[in-house]
Amino acid sequence: MSMRKLLVAAMPALVVALASTAFAQQSPKLGKPISQEDLASWDISIGPDGAGLPAGSGTVKQGEATFAAKCQACHNEKGAGTPNDRLVGGQGTLAGDKPPIKTVGSYWPYATTLFDYIRRAMPLNESKSLTNDEVYGVVAYLLNLNGVIPETETLNAQTLPKVAMPNRDGFIAFTRGK
To answer: Which ranges of the chain would DSSP assign to H, the alpha helix?
Structure first.
């Protein structure tokens, strides 16, 4: 093999070696470390047991008004679906030959998870824009539409974890290596 061919063949490896050496010697200086204050606005996870639920409360009636104003455009009237996910119905469809209809009332095992998701991600075009009271209200409205809670229920940090979802026993707990 000629020297020229050998150099051409080895060139990519040489370029990578030189580049990695240069980068190893200096930091790329991208961004900055996040402060605890900045992190706090995103550290809003709610566990299945309700740990971390904020102060506030909401009723079915309040949730209906918020849903109509901020959710209905994507989830249709009364959560019937289209253009985005259907939120109501589907009970009894998980076990059978037909495709299951996975909704808040048929699939979700914890009401607290619903609160966490809505608070963090909805409405899609303005995530994290709902107040805690609005989130409690929307959760109450959706749970009522699915027949999980009565119309007179008020949800808050004490009552929400006590809501027994229809599919609460439909999941198998995963324990790592045990």
So the answer is: 3-25, 36-40, 60-70, 72-75, 111-121, 132-145
